Amino acid sequence: MTDLLRPRAIGAPLERLDGPDKINGTARYAFEHPVPDPLYVHPVQATIARGRIEDIDVHAAEDLDGVATVLTHENAPRLATGSDAELWVLQSPEIAFRGQLIGAVLAETPEIARQAADLVRVDYRREPHHVVLRGDDDALYAPEVVNPSFAADTRDGDPDGAEPAVVVDATYTTPMEHNNPMEPHATIATWRGGVLTMYDSTQGVHQMRSRLAPVLGLDPERIRVLAPHVGGGFGSKGTAHAHNALAALAARVAGGRPVKLALTRQQMFALVGYRTPTIQHVRLGADRDGKLELVTHDVVEQTSTVQEFAEQTAVGTRTVYAAPNRRTTHRLAALDVPVPFWMRAPGEAPGMFATESAVDELAEACGIDPIDLRCRNEPAVDPATGLPYSARHLAECLREGAERFGWAGRDPAPRSARDGDWLVGTGVASATYPGYKMPGSTATVRYRDGRYEVRIGAADIGTGTRTALTQIAADALDRPVSDVDLELGDTALPTATVEGGSSGLTSWGTTVVEAARRFREKFGHDPADGDEADGAMPEEPDEQRYAIHSFGAHFAEVRVNADTGEVRVPRLLGVFSVGRVVNPRLVRSQLLGGITMGMSMALFEHSVLDPQFGHVINHDLAQYHVAAHADVADIEVSWLDEHDPHSNPMGSRGVGEIGIVGSPAAIANAVHHATGIRVRDLPITPDKLL
Ligand code: MOS
User: Fold this and answer.
1) Which residues form the Aldehyde oxidase/xanthine dehydrogenase a/b hammerhead domain (predicted)?
2) Ligand 1 mean position, distance from CA 334 (Å)
3) What gap in Å lies between CA 608 and CA 177, rounded to an integer?
4) pLDDT tens-digit profile of 616-641?
5) How high is the ipTM of this complex?
6) Which of 38, 147, 487, 661 is geometrically suited to a Cys-Cys bond with 431, CB 3.0 to 4.6 A?
């Protein structure tokens, strides 16, 4: 690949360029943009899980002082196409899940809008609903593909006929979980002169525009989306959701006034996607030396009746372990529930919990150390594609982690260590995540007043994109970081792909390097004012020649209270292979965050769906516990010193998601080591240990 880059800024632990703005409050998030004379929107949501609105009475709401309009399916503007069912809001009286948007109040203050929304009276015709995922549901079906475009099923050899000497056969389950970024989903929409302008909290301004445009019947050029700062997303802001369409409809009727819509935390639990619950049947078979002969991973999960989203739960298993006999399958139940969507490492996060727990069970059954067993099963080429890996350093991660963690000399017997009332155990698990690169971005470089302006409509969702991409641009232009001004987060800038699948910096960085290369080709090192060049992301033949994945090894120490079952996690360590690290400060932060979220998944997160009413009852941060500082003790991360020659011009790979992959299994395996109890059902709550 290109040797254009001389890494100087790349590799430096630069502080976030927008850090001071964020600390002093001048960095504006979606809802904070000053707009003149706004109206505030409060949604009305369905209170049944399936049926139809027979009558909707808005008189009391409309009569409230300060209410401008109440929108329902009876008076809302018509959307241009019904082909995007999740965004088909206020177009019909049908109810497909509890919490569905059925109306909206526009008012002079948020308080009035909320009060009026409570005054809307709805008569429903209820129909029976199905909201509980069951492995034996008659209506399970095989999707055509799983997210984003993997085959639903794979098969090698004879997975049903194989008879290995040692077999582990177990079912693992993970619950429904919800993304809870610090900044709730929010939009300001203004529809004036046939142009819709939105300040939105999104992981992709261009994706927001391209999905909304056909629904609204607008030429994409007539929509502008801005998102200069975003307070987290974890996947939930990776696309438009129903509230974005609702905000646009509200703006349509607001007579040119801006409308402001901020979802409440409780509303987010019905409207912005979530991780599907999974039921995963895993069989691993090996010879007495622990060499795998059989791997099957059969997944049951849910989608909605509104729109299909098929999580790729077994896809990580396809690349991490080879065996002559393998099978992976995905089966879906379409339930009367909200549409599931991306949540940090969709697929790999729940899937590798099952696989890496099963590998621990297999190691125990074989009487082999779980690190040894993993190293004995390192494949020479990618078992999913047959391609060589650009860099598969999983065994190095495991060995270096073992060294740092102090794994040697561990007594593998469960319940072998006790400290007073606390049972102490350690566990390990592997992580893998694909090195996605999304085609379709462009960038421009312009020279003016001694400075280089780099423009690309990328997203910084709190990850530090603005800083890392500036470092990449500086090296590509062979200039110091202080000479580069990066602009992002606006559809008025060149098109950028979504911040998703840990693909952002790879995709945009490659694009910026290409624009810089063209700029330097045209203007050399001594450009004149106004010189400008653009670049599109080049075709990368290496992507077809190599399997590009990141890897990692997680180590956990847990203490389980023998009387109460309380689990504490005094120590977590992750060692990763992620290619060259563009900014160690930011990468460390991403990996720490991913591992913390993995701990949260292991011990806490569980959206409890009420089967009778069909909604998530613990729909706020008081009841849905996300790991907080008090839960986290010592987390250490490190990475191998490497450079992936095939991934991108920076030699880097994505880091946003791999931290959450495998960390729940490392904790579950440590809990088993501490207690002798194998918890196959997340989260690992105290009742499961008594
Ligand atoms: Mo990530 S779940 O692709 O934002």
Assistant:
1) 24-128
2) 22
3) 9
4) 999 999 999 999 999 999 999 999 99
5) 0.95
6) 661
Which pLDDT belongs to residue 4?
53
Q: What's the pLDDT at 5?
A: 75
The per-residue pLDDT for range 301-346, each reduced to its tens digit, is 999 999 999 999 999 999 999 999 999 999 999 999 999 999 999 9
Query: Best substitution site from 180, 202, 234 to test ligand 1's pocket, by max atoms within 8 Å of Cβ?
Result: 234
- The string of pLDDT tens digits covering residues 107-155 is 999 999 999 999 999 999 999 999 999 999 989 999 999 999 999 999 9
Q: Say yes or no: CB of residue 500 within 6 Å of ligand 1.
A: yes
Instruction: Kindly give the distance from the C-alpha atom of residue 617 to the centroid of ligand 1, in angstroms, as a whole number.
Output: 25
Q: How far is the CA of 546 from the centre of ligand 1 (A)?
A: 23
C-alpha 268 to ligand 1 mean position (Å): 17
Cβ(344) to ligand 1 under 6 A?
yes
Ligand 1 atom showing the smallest separation from residue 501 Cα: 3
Distance 178 CA to ligand 1 centre (A): 13
If you take atom 4 of ligand 1, which residue's CA is the nearest one? 235
Any atom of ligand 1 within 6 Å of the Cβ of 593: no
Which one-letter DSSP state was computed for residue 529?
Answer: T
**Residue 402: how many CB atoms within 10 A of its CB?**
20
Structural domains of the chain in order of their starting residue, each with its CATH number: 19-29+438-539 (3.30.365.10), 33-128+180-271 (3.30.365.10), 146-177+274-436+545-689 (3.30.365.10)
The CA distance from 180 to 182, in Å, is 6
Single pTM value for the model:
0.97
Cβ of 342 closer than 6 Å to ligand 1, yes or no, is yes
**Do the strands 292-304 and 51-57 form a parallel or antiparallel pair, or are they unpaired?**
unpaired
Write the DSSP assignment of 578-645 as a string of letters.
-BS-S-HHHHHHHHHHHHHHHHHHHHT----B-TTT-SBSS-STTTSPPP-GGG--EEEEEE-----T
The per-residue DSSP string of 282-293 comes to: EEEEE-TT--EE
Ligand 1 and 98: CB distance under 6 A: no
What percent of the chain shows pLDDT beyond 90? 97
Q: Taking residues 503-508, report their average pLDDT.
A: 97
Place of tokens 């999905």: 211
| 657 given a catalytic annotation | yes
Instruction: For the chain, give the mean pLDDT.
Output: 97
